[in-house]
């Protein structure tokens, strides 16, 4: 492996601090500047970039259901594999996701005090880094707001995976006064048990508001890899093949004052619903998704108690 990635990590650690590796937006911006990357990165660009920074090979491989990519070290050399039967937008997201995990490993070797994240936290940080590297924040934020927080529109415009889009939405809406936002992707895969969906990701943007509680139990918005029942509003979206708008998601016992509004959007592949993309915002801010509601004309559910898959 050549030293370009090590040189970047050394520069970043000394100039910006090793703990800022967890700041995905800052890390992606520094990475883009250091390697003088173009504004748009496609699959070939990412493969060439990988070779430039010292990755021995980036190749399509056969992977088990549920796995989009991985990296391995062989005699000191790094190889990245991405799922060969994924569409190119998803492959383009997987490669920089693996870059972020490799950066963490290199940082640990250079700065022994560095504490890398693990599990879902690391996966979400890698998602956020990849999304920030692939999608410009200013333009994406403007499109997010003007579309009424529409993940399907953003997926089509930016040609990126739904997980990438949801992650980027959370990033560009974070730490400002726009609105708390939660986004998730539920998937139907070959090995998913009948009657269940698999949580593909969960990202949130939570501006700081004193004395307000924005932490949500995992049962409401499950972590990556959790199974959830295909019932309630989720089932309606699948069986009727149309968007479902939950006007009020109530009974959130961990909250001081808020209920939510949530919109479930089905994703069709080969005449089957293969994904559900869900966004949620506080009920009092639901006017912000009006452009999306006007566009999709969803089935409306007036009230659901506690869970997306609960009874109305």
Defining key terms:
312 residues, alpha+beta, Beta-Lactamase, 10 helices, 38% helix
Structure description:
With 312 residues, the chain is α+β, with helices and mostly antiparallel strands. It folds into two domains: 4-132, no CATH class; 136-305, PAS domain (Beta-Lactamase, 2-Layer Sandwich). It has helices at residues 4-16, 24-34, 43-53, 88-110, 119-134, 137-146, 151-158, 162-172, 232-239, 290-296, and strands at residues 57-61, 69-74, 77-83, 181-187, 196-205, 227-229, 244-250, 260-269, 272-282, 299-305. The strands form two sheets. The protein has a seven-stranded mixed β-sheet with strand order 6-5-4-9-8-7-10. It has a three-stranded mixed β-sheet with strand order 1-3-2. A hairpin with a 2-residue loop joins strand 2 (69-74) and strand 3. The radius of gyration is 20 Å and the shape is globular. The N and C termini lie far apart (56 Å). 39% of the residues are buried. The model is unreliable at 208-214 (pLDDT under 50).
Task: Briefly characterize the structure.
With 312 residues, this protein is α+β, with helices and mostly antiparallel strands.
Strands, helices and their partners?
Elements: H1 4-16, H2 24-34, H3 43-53, E1 57-61, E2 69-74, E3 77-83, H4 88-110, H5 119-134, H6 137-146, H7 151-158, H8 162-172, E4 181-187, E5 196-205, E6 227-229, H9 232-239, E7 244-250, E8 260-269, E9 272-282, H10 290-296, E10 299-305
Parallel strand pairs: 1-3, 7-10
Antiparallel strand pairs: 2-3, 4-5, 4-9, 5-6, 7-8, 8-9
Helix pairs in contact: 1-4, 2-5, 3-4, 4-5, 5-8, 6-8, 7-8
